[in-house]
Structures
1.
Amino acid sequence: MDLGVLLPSLIPSSQSVYVLVFYFVYLAVAGEILPGKVIRGVVLSDGSQLRYRCNGLFALTLLVAILGISAKLGLVSPLVVADRGLELLSATFILCVLVTLVLYITGRSSSDKGSSLKPHVSGNLVHDWWFGIQLNPQFLSIDLKFFFVRAGMMGWLLINLSILAKSVQDGSMSQSMILYQIFCALYILDYFVHEEYMTSTWDIIAERLGFMLVFGDLLWIPFTFSIQGWWLLHNKVELTVPAIVANCFVFLIGYMVFRGANKQKHIFKKNPKTPIWGKPPVVVGGKLLASGYWGIARHCNYLGDLMLALSFSLPCGISSPVPYFYPIYLLILLIWRERRDEERCAEKYKEIWAEYLRLVPYRILPYVY
Ligand code: NDP
């Protein structure tokens, strides 16, 4: 790629700053005023519980409707994101750095003793900035961690929709683009339908809010998970009917395992007596579910997610490794995360965890890993 062309396109214009400002202000206001189920988060170590208003689906639908109508009236261009991808990426990066510097400074000066806001300071500036200082920092009573992950997931869909509009405009629309768009849109909509499940995930309950998480949510998710879409704008792929059928199959099985496993854990945490696949659950030490998907492997949900990630890339064929960036990254991330999660669980559950390991020996893929 020509650096003389690449570098200028990385400099954010005022328009890309307006796009980001509009987006974040909309999300902040919509998150506060739109109705939605209020969910109590997990019980923190000091006994407190945060509340999350799960109105992401409403906020997303309304935003897409507003943007669709505005595009129809000629008020905004549906190509604004696709045409300014690199600028938006660099503007988002600058935002991540600024936000996390503010989080670092305010976190360090916090004297709060509660689990959410207590500062965790190692003394190493880079470490504390990267991993964060506080567990659940807030701004104007908005839970920033929940807000950023929502912004990232919605941003991914908005980027994809703009790429779709671009492919219609330049005539590069293909079966591959349609498949990629449908799979991702279903995944993202499903995420918001089940937004409450997010409140018990590792990121929300265990990770502090530092550059790693903010960058991951705001930049990594929307801009790298959409690489396949960008790639399809410039590359033509001919898919055979069996390839399309196989691709749909990988998506459906992946979805079933991913959603099924996350749902089983969620309902088990709410009521450990709820039947799993029509039978009373197998429970270890009264705390851990060892039947259903959680009796097949200790992280079947990761397996489902990996299959889904693969299904987003398969529409691009196998001529280039570039569209496989997301499943490869996710494989590395989830193996690393699974190891860290196991360490945390071993420490938390002690002999109960050892018993669970004995009952369910596989980590992610039965008989393989
Ligand atoms: P999990 O939802 O698997 O949560 C792990 C926690 O669940 C453990 O710390 C423990 O918490 C509890 N737990 C573990 N085993 C059991 C059991 N047998 N019975 C009951 N509780 C158990 O992990 P994540 O939060 O990492 O992932 C959530 C979803 O998000 C996954 O589907 C994952 O694929 C997806 N994800 C996607 C990413 C992406 O980039 N696309 C990135 C990261 C995650 P406790 O102490 O509360 O019991």
2.
Amino acid sequence: MPQTTAEAQAPQTSTVDFLPLHGTDYVEFYVGNAKQAAHFYKTAFGFQSLAYAGPETGVMDRASYVIRQEKLTFVLTTALKPNNPIADHVALHGDGVKMLALKVDDASDAWIQTTKRGAKSYMEPKTLKDENGEVVMSGIHTYGDTVHLFIERKNYKGTFMPGYRKWESNYNPPPSGLLYVDHCVGNVGWNQMNPWVKFYEDVMGFKNILSFDDNDISTEYSALMSKVMSNGNGYVKFPINEPAEGKKKSQVEEYLDFYLGEGVQHVAIATHDIIKTVTDLKNRGVEFLSIPPNYYEDVLDRVGKIDEDLQPLKELGILIDKDDEGYLLQIFSKPLQDRPTVFFEIIQRKGAKSFGKGNFKALFEALEREQELRGNL
Ligand code: FE2
């Protein structure tokens, strides 16, 4: 019997996760005007003011506004002067996601493990301290100008992190039911999907859990390919898209043309009640892609019985898909800024762990209608 115990306790070296992640810590956008962007995300999506950094806190080159709703934290950062990396990023890409910050127990080890496996360092581990404790952060480059930061905050009790002060506001709009980042999608260039899949496998220990080729994701006009990368516990999921040949320009190409390179295409945000959340967001002025009513004629034949009434889903344009484990409800916003680049997905999972493959055709046809209006199809 002792042998059995020893066996049960023996370390399973093959399954040891060298980069344990506890989910998304925050998403940082570089924007042209952070004060106004923070107001937009509070008003339109129901975030609350959390923290601020800028000249008043001793940060002279930028202003950063931190907003939060449940486990979803956004940082909106702008440059205060030209000719620095933030101003250059915004001039080139427009408003977009710069940092996908991941929660770790040990930011130094995360940096060591990933850089020794080939990641290009963005920031060596550094410790930020104030009277509330310390935060250790480090970072590596990923596709385009996008960065993964590793954030270790187990010894910190302050509002956000050293360098920031609490942001008290008289304007505290009610939340909209957004909970946390479900997944975050990157658009990469022609023939770049597999190299980035390999990066997430080799450098971060992720696994490819789903793949879609251009037969899965194509319409009469345009196509793309996608592979979903997930970390060991499934808290961090990064689908990677690349364009595929079609008769006309794909949505990924349009993104690459306007972002001037690879970057984050969409952030998918979870809710427990998508009908309530989307009704609320629409009332606040958030615009979503519209889905033709005939999508709903046979959708229940495809997905089977669902708990929700079909009518509100149809009125709101919410899509439905299923996999072996259940179903999901999802909807996609229009771009969040003037360039047709980053947008949000709102998703409610009812067992399903997939990404809405059954909706791709309807979704891409909706996207093509928008592309056509912009003259980019
Ligand atoms: Fe998605």
3.
Amino acid sequence: MRSNWKQRLKATKKAIDRRGLLAAAGLTAACSSGTKPAAEEEMPSELGSAVSAYGERSKFETTKRLVPDLKRPQIGSTTTPLADTEGMITPASLHFERHHAGVPEIDPAKHTLLVHGLVERPTVFTLEDLKRLPSVSRIHFVECSGNSGREWKSPGAGDVQKGFGLASCSEWTGVPVKLLLEEVGRKAEGKWVLAEGADACRMFRSLPVEKVISDGIVVYAQNGEAIRPSQGYPLRLLVPGYEGNTNVKWLRQLKVVDQAYMAKDETSKYTDLMPDGKARMFTFVMDAKSVITTPSGGRKVGGPGFHEIRGLAWTGRGRIEKVEVSVDGGKTWKAAELQEPRLPMAFTRFRMAWEWDGQPVEIMSRATDESGYVQPSREELTAARGMNSNYHYNGIKAWRVKAGGEVESV
Ligand code: CO
């Protein structure tokens, strides 16, 4: 062992700079630059910039949400650059947006939450009241049910941001809905809860009371600070695992009722038209989904050799149990490594070492969640649901790596 090490040292003695050591470890293909630390003359001799009150990222970092060119940008969406995020948390500044009537400006001192309907004690809560109550912080994804919607018609979503960026994951802090409903004394016949927002369209959704009691949170903070105006400042509802639209922003009332209200956003919208002309309604749960973010459409693989395939998986049915990756167009699959902790209804990062021989390949990922649900292929999904849907697309996504390293959507 020792002599082996000595031999290797001798062999690499002439190439003792960083690049040489990496070459000895077989990693040159993955590392293309840096033969020395920054030269002395490049080091600053002046003081850097001053301390500041609120942080900014480096000017060299330019990743952004994608803002589409819309006639009425108040009624639109922006997407998270998932291929440029690391780990499981989306910075609040990059969390996707989807608004139905723009972002209202709300003074938190004047904002209240009314909890009423089939309850013993209808109550108006100020933000101050809510912050005095026992709180929880939980990490959950939010995904618009329209995420990946273009894949229904053609699987041509050019890149991860355009095709998958209506999903983000944050740490959310607030008061469990369970506690609020106990405070007001929900009556037994109260089986649904209407959640209404304070935006100009008075967005509201009907939600089954069991779900909001088990998982719902009235949220006032995201990733350690107040939620941002575009995320519902000063208050939003979080219904983990349910389609994004149910996570009502600028929350102003929760009304306990005996049946669903058939609101605009649960009849003409957010329903799924099946091949027989009937529509699936109240399709709340976001099924298991995954996508390889590195390498991915529009990006380039930097030459043959060692790479790490990375991606994200999530499910509205609890934890991600397994993510398999294929690097041969779906012929064979291998389990990827899952980053812990794997939290229920949160992004799970997966990784797999990959040695690319420089030949064209198709790569793809397939998620399985703890309920046993397996992410379907495009063929399986469209066979079951037809092609009329706009929402809830979660088919397996393939990327083609071409001989030159360019990656395109398949
Ligand atoms: Co739905």
